[in-house]
Amino acid sequence: MILALESSCDETAVAAFDPAAGFAGEWVHSQIALHETYGGVVPDLASREHLAHFGPILQRALATIRPEQVTQIAVTRGPGLAACLAMGLAAAKSLALVWRVPVVGVNHLRAHAFSPFISLHAANPAAFDTELARLLPHLGLLVSGGNTALFSIDEARRITLLASTMDDAAGEALDKGAKLLGLGYPGGPQVEKLAAAGDSAAFAFPKAVAQRSTLEFSFSGLKTSLRYQLEKMQPAGVEMRKADLCASYQAAVFDALVRKSRLALERGAYRSFGLSGGVANNRILQALLENVARSQNLPFWRAQPKHTGDNAGMIAFAASVEREAGGVSQAGLGLEIAPSLPLTAS
């Protein structure tokens, strides 16, 4: 049994995962309501909340599993907010010492990369390795508030970064757009909600983000375009056209994600295509990318909602499936946090 702890930002999470059987349980404390007042995550408040809630969440976990079942502690070591990561690491090391089990560090981004395959494991744990092998090499798209990346996973489960964003992440662009429009936190879901009732062709926001021949992303110009558009409108007009503005702005963000994903698939020989990260919950984006996969005759795998945000389930899963590919840090009690850890590092 792998017991995983996640505290990279504003979610305090614990999960228990048996590679032979699946999840014994997942527990999360969300801080969204606390940070909503400030329009974003306040690091000091987030770390304080982790300190207050790790104990109670672990107590809930231990009502389901027994300490003697745990053979490994897995903890997020980065990337993330330094003070928040430190809380999780301290808790993980304490448990490892008391229970006399090893502790390993997991890359949060690499956990996202493997998260679409959690449902594959759940369907048949005994056949997981065989079924996963049939889906590799895999092209993945990670879309979250802080990251936008195209990457591949080869037959040895090694991750190679193919492209990332040159400025804002897609989720960040949606959040900043929401802030310009006076919407609440978190912004992305608010944009999606209003966009459902809007016309995506109502406003001509630029869709040629970054050079068309490259895989790199760029969203800062799009955000600037929205600001200029709002400056040309009266407040009453903005309010009246808010749904159309959201739909058009969101469409411009997604156009870049779809176009670059299609280009990457055309340039490589892949057996599957996947979507992960917080923005993966957007139903319009899901449909668009599923169509891309279908056009290439590839299966489309996406992370399930509870495994798209900051969660311990994907941390435990990555600790299990990456053990042969060198993607998990084995530093033990000498483990240190890595707030700026890149996707390709262990």
Automatic annotation (TrEMBL):
HAMAP family in the cross-refs: TsaD (MF_01445)
Co-factor binding details: Binds 1 Fe(2+) ion per subunit.
Record bears the keyword Metal-binding: yes
Location in or out of the cell: Cytoplasm
Gene Ontology MF terms: iron ion binding; tRNA N(6)-L-threonylcarbamoyladenine synthase activity
Any one biological process term the GO annotation gives: tRNA threonylcarbamoyladenosine modification
Binding site for Fe cation: 108, 112, 310
UniProt keyword annotations, A-Z: Acyltransferase, Cytoplasm, Iron, Metal-binding, Transferase, tRNA processing
Residue positions binding substrate: 142-146, 175, 188, 192, 282
Protein known as: tRNA N6-adenosine threonylcarbamoyltransferase
Statement: the UniProt record of this protein carries the keyword tRNA processing: yes
Record domain Gcp-like: where: 26-317
NCBIfam families per record: gcp_kae1, T6A_TsaD_YgjD
SUPFAM superfamilies referenced in this protein's UniProt entry, alphabetically: Actin-like ATPase domain (SSF53067)
Family affiliation: Belongs to the KAE1 / TsaD family.
InterPro entries with a match to the protein in the record: ATPase_NBD, Gcp-like_dom, KAE1/TsaD, Peptidase_M22_CS, TsaD
GO cellular component: cytoplasm
Its EC number(s): 2.3.1.234
Gene3D superfamilies recorded: 3.30.420.40
Function: Required for the formation of a threonylcarbamoyl group on adenosine at position 37 (t(6)A37) in tRNAs that read codons beginning with adenine. Is involved in the transfer of the threonylcarbamoyl moiety of threonylcarbamoyl-AMP (TC-AMP) to the N6 group of A37, together with TsaE and TsaB. TsaD likely plays a direct catalytic role in this reaction.
Cofactors that this protein relies on: Fe(2+)
Catalytic activity, as annotated: L-threonylcarbamoyladenylate + adenosine(37) in tRNA = N(6)-L-threonylcarbamoyladenosine(37) in tRNA + AMP + H(+)
